Amino acid sequence: MIEQEKEQNLNEINQENPKSINGFTSMRHQVANEIFTTEDVYIKKLTILANEFSNELINFAKNDRSFISEKDIKAIFDSIKSILEVNFQLYSELAICMNPWNDEAKIGKAFLQFIPFLKIYRNYIENYDNTTKTLEKFAKTPKFSSWAQEKKMEHNLLDLPSFLIMPVQRLPRYQLLLKELVSNTDQSHCDYTDLVKAQEEITKVNNFVNESIHKRENDAKILAIQKKFSNKALKDLVAPHRKYIYDSPLHKLYGTKKIKLHFFLFNDIIIYGTESSGSYTLYRIMKINFCSIEEGDPQQLQFFIQNMDKKYTIFAESKEEKRKLD
Fold first, then answer.
1. Per-residue pLDDT at 30
2. What residues does the DH domain cover (predicted)?
3. Which domains occur in the chain, in start order?
């Protein structure tokens, strides 16, 4: 019922949209119109995702237990429905600003009311890779492939992945459009202050989402490294402050022999050990605060790690690997 009301409201708004106006009154009007029209398209596609695609996939799941589970489908599309709820509110506010257009329209104010809710995008974007991997697993089955091709033809060659990536792309798009609107709004304009603030706030949201994604990816990488060590000494490798930087096979000098080891560099520690069949045995953990790096013979791709207790002679395997360590 709610979705039907939204569709009806959407149609009413579109009927009121002054498409008969030839041209734009200003660059500000043109940019504002781009924000509104792209939001219109975005809302319509989100509605297709939240209703048509979601319902049909759930029916698939109910009728075929070998298919993706109903739980997985709901996990994907519940976020889409939440995003649709929030964005429809923004769309409604933008429609008031645009119909009819008035150069005093407060686009910035409309965005400021909407921005606090944008963090709901975080959960969707963080899980986007898992979503696509889950669907890819079933995309090769004849039944799903046939359905996906049918949907693609129905929606002007837009396939399911093209719909699913839209929320990922929308936040950066807002940032660019608001920046352009600010640059085409005079500083004395009644909307200017709100526009600047809206641009700043949406940049913060973008940064917040990106940092969350990077943090999650970083922790996943560190956990994967931890699991490769046979020793239990690395059970607490994942830590809130720790960032993975780089890892590479290097050669350490023991007496007169070079022994191949695998080094892992983090922002606070260096760890290394021997590799065997994809797993590692830990040799040592060194704290970065107590280490210094000195250059050695460049012809031998040599450098030294000075720790508190001793100096280690290390050799890179190639010039490229050595440059990464510089």
1. 94
2. 27-212
3. 2-226 (1.20.900.10), 234-325 (2.30.29.30)
